[in-house]
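Regression test attached.
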Amino acid sequence: MKKHDQDFMKRQNRLTVFEIVKNSRPISRAAIAKQTGMSPTTVSRIVNELIEEGYLFESDQVSEGLGRKSTLLDMVNGSVLSVGVELDVAHMNVGIVDLQGQLVCGSRFDKEPDESAERTIERIGEAIGELVELNRIERSHIVGIGVGLPGIVNNGKGLVVFSVQLGWKNVALADRLKALTGYDVAVDNELKVKALAEHLKGAAIGSTHTALLGFGHGVGSALILEGEIYRGEMNSAGEIGHTTVDPNGMMCECGKTGCLQTYINISSLLSEANRIRPVKTIEELFEARRAGEQWAVQLIERALMYMAITVNNIVCMNNPDSVILSGELIEKFPEVYDEVEKLCNSRFIWEPLRGSFTFHRSGLKEQGVVIGSGLLSQNRFFALA
Amino acid sequence: MKKHDQDFMKRQNRLTVFEIVKNSRPISRAAIAKQTGMSPTTVSRIVNELIEEGYLFESDQVSEGLGRKSTLLDMVNGSVLSVGVELDVAHMNVGIVDLQGQLVCGSRFDKEPDESAERTIERIGEAIGELVELNRIERSHIVGIGVGLPGIVNNGKGLVVFSVQLGWKNVALADRLKALTGYDVAVDNELKVKALAEHLKGAAIGSTHTALLGFGHGVGSALILEGEIYRGEMNSAGEIGHTTVDPNGMMCECGKTGCLQTYINISSLLSEANRIRPVKTIEELFEARRAGEQWAVQLIERALMYMAITVNNIVCMNNPDSVILSGELIEKFPEVYDEVEKLCNSRFIWEPLRGSFTFHRSGLKEQGVVIGSGLLSQNRFFALA
């Protein structure tokens, strides 16, 4: 019954009304009531709130057809913008995102060596200020900030519980950034917001069970179920990097042996490569494979096999209709996507589920986290009364 | 937006009203409207339908407190019963389930050797007839039949797509059984209905993210998310038996190598045991382990390790608050549960998620599938207008 408690329904109703106006504008109050099954009183209350707050207005148009004429509601253009932030190991991306999920403007910063969490948060605040000023964004149109980052995030509290990649533990990111900027801040795992963006505006529009996999510096996944991020009990669903794929396998930084990420992620691949000869970058490793160096062929083919196994395991467990492959390894090396898809179809997907889903590349590419973070912030704004 | 379309909301509202009356009876129409946020008109329409259909009645009591007195609604006792059926490799269980999820009466039948699907369905129909007659059940109180079985089920059509255990492929179970009995028939995977039963009436009451694992003749899992069975795109979520745990592992009946079930399920364990000496039953194998025969110790300890790995992998992927271990291996051999829990806590659960969930034995034991199937049928009855 949790889904239908009173608070949840109130928030959901507000978001539903806004979404309907956004997608079917101009539209009458009566039509909204009909589409949602809400009472006319509830619809009127929500609409009046949204008009008062400056997001909707009553247009001159009146509804067509028989019956009483009623004025139609429309959206105030540009009334809603949000800031999306991607926080990664070595850099930050900051962007302004509009209601349609378009990036209005953006900027990118490298992190300083050994930058503290506090300093990083200050720099995000400064970057947002500069972006707003430089692009003459009306401050009052910004409804909030969303931040996506690798690691386990308590999204309710806006707390970064644990991020190996950032070296952060229990950082109250939302509170600190709100104190610096004055805006409400939503924080989430980068793959969750990326998947949300792909579902709303990218490769998986219309999908009801979307799985996004990220293969890069980390290994992770995210599910979007009927339009909503699947979070699990403490927002750490999707941590496939630490599923055990070989109990006799390599030591993982987490203290277990044979975690999936030890076969796939970039630092593991480089550390394995360096058993043979000095290899500084992932590009060098793929170069060695292309040159036919057998050790590099073996190492990368093992990684590709485990990527295909991962797709199978997620498909068996969650039965998605769409699987999006993303992350640095996919985006930098186009052959990786093609080879993983081929391995899946020829060997690794359990036969009864072959053809039960479609493969996709990311539609928003490296913009996914910024756009998704911005959309997350907008969703939260409209859902909170 | 799919979750909030008009049809879905209508069905959900009807079920919600019925659930509230069931759990808070006697209750007024106004209180239902307040608790749900539905309009008084909608509540009245649904309540009137349910009264007309004989499930609710207006009691003599009137609501207390200030304001206008209003009559209170209550349930007609015994007005709703359903039939739950468990269909397994070697036997069938049939039971009558009441609104509280109690088994009113039940019977068990062995299947005949090489019984056809058609014959099995006829025998289910006969068994239901006998059960109803013998226990003087009022036929009009039975709202439908639910059937739980191992395999992939198209739950919308009531079609058994594929069941290795039953040897069935594309069997229109719901249609056939409805033709024989006259009742509406809901069909689903056994672990999904078992998990539903444990969530509603068993070990996981109050849990919002429940994972149930079944270790027995097959290996599978089910998720209950906020009270609803998680199905995925084609109702085959939870098929963990065919996740690959070792690409160099044993040949699975599915044609892949190293599927999880080749390390855990009863027939695989027996087939491995028979490489050493003739072993007919799983009890014999566990006996050999207790007697300290090293090959049996190794074989079972490997299975226990893979069970613990499976718990970790599900926890990493889905982040549940409760994990229920069930199935023949758990229920027949109490040490299995204890050892898997110990292995999980000492070695196999990824450290950040240790303590993020509680372990449970099945609360309904071997009754879970019959009760869950019965409850599934009731849920469907109240959700369909």
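Expected vs. actual: identical. The first strand of chain B starts at residue 27 and ends at 28.
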